[in-house]
Amino acid sequence: MNMPQDKVEFNEAQTSTQAPEGVNIRTLMKDMVNLKDMLEIETTYLKNMDISKVKDMHQKKLDLIRKIEIQKELIKRDKNILNEISATERQYIEHLNRNMDVVIKDNFYEALKAKEVNHRIIEVISQEVARQTNVASGYGQNGYGNIGRNNGGSSVSLAISENI
Predict the structure, then answer these.
(1) N or C: where does the chain have the smaller number of CB atoms within 10 Å of the terminal CB?
(2) Which of these, 2, 86, 91, lies nearest to 40 by C-alpha position?
């Protein structure tokens, strides 16, 4: 669901915002771009069901999200910061937000698909293991022996995790 995006060029020389009280608009924009790029890569891995690579990216993604959330919280506390940024910066941030919305939706959709595929694979494996597993033998309530014996199957132990 990649939609063509309007490109807004950003030139750091055009920025006017310094870092008032810990807020750095340039860093925020770079982190947002890095997160967007990382989510696009992750979405590709999810489409290809290359889950191990998604797992490897998880901590880096969380670190970027934390950095962005800290910057956004600082901006939320001091709304004047937004009045101090240039029109170019404002336009670039709006562009990033629009792109992030699309990328996040794509990523979420692919993560749901991967989770569903994983769940179905686990179901099929579990059903096959249950089909091939011996049921315990013994005496039933009427005293008959070998109740529930499955001829020909063998006991199999299996540990399954539904985590992606």
Answers:
(1) N
(2) 2
Say which residue, 147 or 113, is predicted with more confidence: 113
Per-residue pLDDT at 17 exceeds 50? no
Which CATH architecture group holds 22-130?
A: Up-down Bundle (1.20)
Query: In the chain, where are the structural domains located?
Result: 22-130
Tokens representing residue 82 in the block: 């937004």
pLDDT tens sequence across 54-100 = 888 889 999 999 999 998 888 888 878 878 888 898 888 889 999 99
The pLDDT score that the predictor gives to residue 134 is: 55
In terms of phi and psi (left: phi > 0; alpha: psi -120 to 50; beta: otherwise), the region of 93 is alpha
Q: Taking Cα atoms as reference points, which of 30, 19, 31 lies closest to residue 63?
A: 31
d(CA 129, CA 33): 46
- On the question of pLDDT at 19 being above 50, the answer is no
> How many beta carbons lie within 10 A of that of residue 47, not counting itself?
13
Cα gap 29→88, rounded to integer Å: 12
Q: How far is CA 126 from CA 84, 132, 159, in A?
A: 59, 10, 10
**Quick one: which H or E segment has residue 151?**
none
